[in-house]
Amino acid sequence: MTLTRHGCNVLASALLFLGYGYSTVLNYFTREGFFAPHLPPRALLVLLASVPVVLGLYYLIGRGKRWAQALFVALYLMSLGVTAWQDTHRFPVPAFQGELQLVNQWGQYLLHGAAVVLLLLSFFKQAPAQDTSR
Predict the structure, then answer these.
(1) Are 71 and 57 a contacting pair, CB within 8 Å?
(2) Choosing a second label site near 35 at 20 to 30 A (CA), which of 1, 60, 120, 122?
């Protein structure tokens, strides 16, 4: 069984939504993100404003919008590059808060990485031929 272009997009979108939910649950237990104690109002507003943008991007990926797929892949690759650059230049690393934080971080890398692979596959798959016999 092979994945079609649409199947790759839908599966990638499902992985991204799964990752968002996964991260939200683990953020509750690690007290990060929305659940951080003493979160400044400005940071809360930024988080609240980003939710519809991120979830909308995931939805548009599932609907097959190429610009949304390309934007996500570009942002993902850029974030990996920035993280690698920070790691090699010895920027201060936040204090280790426990195993759940590590599980959250690596779970996100795996889910987003798998979604990027599916999106890259969808870029190279042929679109179904249009019926022009009418």
Answers:
(1) yes
(2) 60
8 Å CB contact between 9 and 62: yes
Angle CA(111)–CA(79)–CA(43) in degrees, nearest 5?
Answer: 95
Residue with tokens 């808060």: 97
* Predicted confidence band of residue 133 (pLDDT cuts 50, 70, 90): low
With cut-offs at 50, 70 and 90, classify the pLDDT of residue 90. Answer: low
Helix (H) or strand (E) holding 7: helix 5-30
Stretch 56-60: mean pLDDT, rounded? 96
Question: Quick one: three-class SS letters along 41-108?
Answer: HHHHHHHHHHHHHHHHHHHHHHCCCHHHHHHHHHHHHHHHHHHHHHHHCCCCCCCCCCHHHHHHHHHH
pLDDT of residue 73 exceeding 90, the answer is yes
Burial class for 109, CB neighbours closer than 10 Å (0-12, 13-18, 19+): middle
